[in-house]
Design brief:
With 476 residues, the chain is mainly beta. The longest helix is centred in the N-terminal third of the chain and has 23 residues, at 2-24. The chain starts with a helix and ends in a 25-residue tail after the last strand.
């Protein structure tokens, strides 16, 4: 018994000694309480890797504030609200440096965030009707910035000023690898100036906004975000850079769509877009070269499902070339595939060229369509298109070879999603699925012999539609 007591005491002493040594060596994070703007400004100047600045409840108000620090991968510098969203940033806050995390704060009054550096993270913050023009901006030259689990809503101010994005990420197409995920964007009214142009909810844009970005890959991923009534303008997500992935996002009742506006080699895969009765709700619009639109689910859209742009002489709109539109599901959409959309200043542009339209389902389950599934906007035939394995049902029979008029034998689930059955036709396809879109909407690996549409047949389907409980500050 005495031996056990001595052993227990010895272990306790060793543990205490280890903790003390760890603190001396900087292994344990130091928590620094911050009560106001002045303390935050002064104390952060002495920041070291591993410091945790705990912001007490209250409003942080003053002149624009730059916090510059250098954390490390194992010891980031953290600025966090003691109580979620009770520390209110009412100013322009700029984070500069590396491995800095801002967590759990609210942005009020004219509060906004500017990020410049590497491995900087904004997480679980809340912005509700800030008076700032742009709410969050990532500056060119920044690398591997993470924006996750935040809630953006009610951008009702500055609607008369152009350039009022909620989230703007400026890049140089130099392998930035930013990551934007699990955010909630909600209740954003339409901009009032210039027909709403410049009010994107999320804009990923090459520096200086060239008409046609220079070569180089950005490699940013935008995924698992929920957009609900995001009505700022026609481009909810606007991509103006190269080689990005936009996947597993859900759009509901938004007056606009996901737009691959400038740039090449982008992938829009496994997104779910519901019209929910909104007549201006749209799907994916694209221009440029080597764009991929695969495994997306479009339902009840009053606008277009997928729209492909004509090119213009000044490259304001770059001709669609070598696009792949593969294994998407179009359910009860007003306009399914629009080819040759044009800019009003250039009514006779160059039509899309060398594209593949493969394995899509064009479906009308409620009433027969009275107009064509495919609309050639200018009446110009696209050049060298390959149509293969597409099915159309419930509307005017398509005369395009490669679109078969046949019942796809789908069934509606309790959540409203239309999914394949064992009798849904499958097709053999020889195209090689890129590693970034080689799964269907449910995450199942593509089979060579797979069901048409966004979802492969399975006996059990994984959840496909995001809810507010799965995104934002309170989600796991």
């Amino acid at each position: 018994m005495r031996y056990k007591t001595i052993l227990s005491t010895s272990i306790s002493v060793l543990v205490l000694l280890y903790v003390c040594i760890g603190q001396i060596n900087g292994q344990a994070a130091e928590k620094i309480e911050v009560h106001n703007y002045t303390e935050l400004k002064d104390k952060f100047q002495e920041s070291t890797p591993g410091d945790v600045f705990v912001l007490k409840d209250g409003e942080y108000m003053g002149a624009p504030l730059m916090l510059k620090g250098e954390g490390t991968a194992t010891k980031p510098i953290i600025i966090e609200a003691e109580h979620l969203h009770q520390a209110e940033i009412a100013i322009e806050l700029r984070l500069v440096g590396s491995f800095i995390t801002l967590k759990g704060c609210a942005f009020t009054k004219h509060g906004k965030l500017i990020i410049e550096g590497e491995n900087i993270r904004m997480s679980r913050c809340y912005i509700n009707n800030s008076q700032a023009r742009k709410w969050v901006r990532v500056l060119a030259g920044s690398m591997q910035v993470e924006i996750d689990h935040n809630h953006f809503e009610n951008k009702t101010s500055n609607l008369g000023n152009k350039g009022c994005q909620l989230l703007q990420v400026v890049v140089r197409n130099q392998d930035e690898r930013h990551h934007i995920h699990h955010n909630l964007f909600k209740d954003i009214p339409k901009g009032t100036e210039n027909n709403g142009n410049g009010y994107e909810t999320v804009q990923l844009i090459t520096e200086n906004n060239p008409f046609n970005p220079a070569p180089g890959d950005c490699n940013t991923i935008i995924e698992h975000n929920l957009f609900h009534r995001a009505n700022g303008e026609a481009e909810i997500i606007s991509i103006k850079s190269n080689s990005n992935i936009i996947r597993y996002n859900t759009f509901r009742a938004c007056q606009g769509g996901l737009v691959l506006r400038h740039g090449h080699g982008n992938i829009a895969s496994a997104n779910v877009m519901f019209g929910d009765g909104e007549p201006k709700a749209s799907g994916i619009r694209l221009q440029g070269r080597n764009q991929v639109v695969a495994n997306n689910y479009f339902a009840g859209l009053g606008g277009y499902g997928v729209a492909m742009m004509d090119g213009t002489p000044d490259d304001l709109y770059v001709r669609v070339e070598r696009a792949m539109i593969a294994f998407n599901s179009f359910v009860d959409c007003s306009k399914v595939l629009e080819i040759g959309l044009n800019h009003s200043k250039h009514p006779n542009g160059t039509p899309p060229k060398d594209c593949q339209i493969i394995g899509n389902v064009l479906y009308s389950g409620h009433e027969k369509r009275s107009h064509a599934w495919v609309h050639l906007v200018q009446g110009d035939q696209p050049e060298d298109f390959r149509w293969y394995g597409n099915l159309a049902f419930g509307g005017v029979p398509s005369a395009i070879k490669g679109i078969t008029n046949r019942d796809p034998q789908l069934v509606q689930r309790p959540d409203g999603m239309i999914v394949p059955t064992a009798n849904t036709p499958r097709i053999d396809h020889t195209m090689n699925a890129h590693e970034q879109y080689n799964t269907d909407l449910c995450g199942q690996i593509w089979e060579v012999h797979r069901s048409v549409g966004a979802i492969q047949y399975a006996t059990i389907y994984a959840p496909m539609v995001l809810t507010e409980e799965q995104v934002g500050p309170y989600a796991e």
